[in-house]
Amino acid sequence: EGSPLEMSQVLGDAGADMSHVAVGHLDREVYSLKSLLDLAKGGCYLQYDGFGDTVFYSLHLGVYDRPSDIQRQHHPALGSFLVVNL
């Protein structure tokens, strides 16, 4: 869960223009809204591979407590950072 945030911090620290960075595969990499918010605060785009596809959501350490697609899409802090590949 921490690697997307760590990667975005490395890019930011190296001087990358975070408005040109998309962190991908978040469907299967980030499991909490707090982590998504922390990632979005860095200014990068959040990319999901499959809205509505629950294959990657099944069981992560026995926890099934993730924001739904609608919650992510309409969250005031996340909505403008989402990129959806359909």
From TrEMBL:
InterPro entries the UniProt entry points to: Metal_Hydrolase, Phosphotriesterase
A family per Pfam: PTE
Keyword Lyase recorded: no
GO molecular function, a single term: hydrolase activity
Keyword Hydrolase recorded: yes
Keywords per UniProt: Hydrolase, Metal-binding
SUPFAM superfamilies the UniProt entry points to: Metallo-dependent hydrolases
Protein's UniProt name: Uncharacterized protein
Annotated source species: marine sediment metagenome
